[in-house]
Amino acid sequence: MPARRFFVRDAHRAGEVVAVHGSDAHKIVNVLRLRDGDVIEVVDSRGAIFAATLESKDGALHARLGELRAEPAASTIVVDVAQGIPKGQKMDFVVEKLGELGVRTLIPLQSERTIVQDLGAAKLERWRRLARSSAQQSGRADLLSVVDPLPFAQLLERFAEYDAVLLPWEVAEQQPLRERLPEIVRGAPRILVVIGPEGGFSHAEAESAQAAGAHLISLGPLILRTETAALVVVAILDYERAT
Description:
By secondary structure, the protein is α/β, with parallel strands linked by helices. The chain is built from seven helices and twelve strands.
């Protein structure tokens, strides 16, 4: 059913009719080849999941919301990722995979060694479309939120919003995460993972992050690519929270 799951804005109730636009309408009609009377899943902004029946009206595609299949999930632990903006198409991969892993928010991060500084609206919109596709593919009932880029100094000011901040750094003390992580994340419902760009974080940035409350962690003796590091940390957090 995830292939037939589509997202709409705002909160809705059974019996309402919602319009289906753009790429979603194209996928329903031209890719899935669904027609009037076929059933899809519609997820609203609260994360409520409805069975919905397709209807064509005035040349446009609509969905009539039926039974409520699932109430919005009450998430007890959220993970956000601040990702140093990489070159090329690497962020596409990061967005897709963090969406699959259930990350709540992705913050494109501009730091001292970030090469890409001027993104433009088109690239942000692309990442948001990829987040939507990732949610549909993985079957999650909400969307990875890709927010506007944030300078490193402003990110430091937001550390106080979290119960734990993890910053992988290649110069951090080589202490195994299996020894450090349980104590760091115990009783921490809001976690921020901060990942540097291709050139990593400077010593000054790492020190200022630590002074602001971040835990500098090691991911082992090998240096991971920027597009790999966030996935590794989030996967480890998922494992730790499941045990």
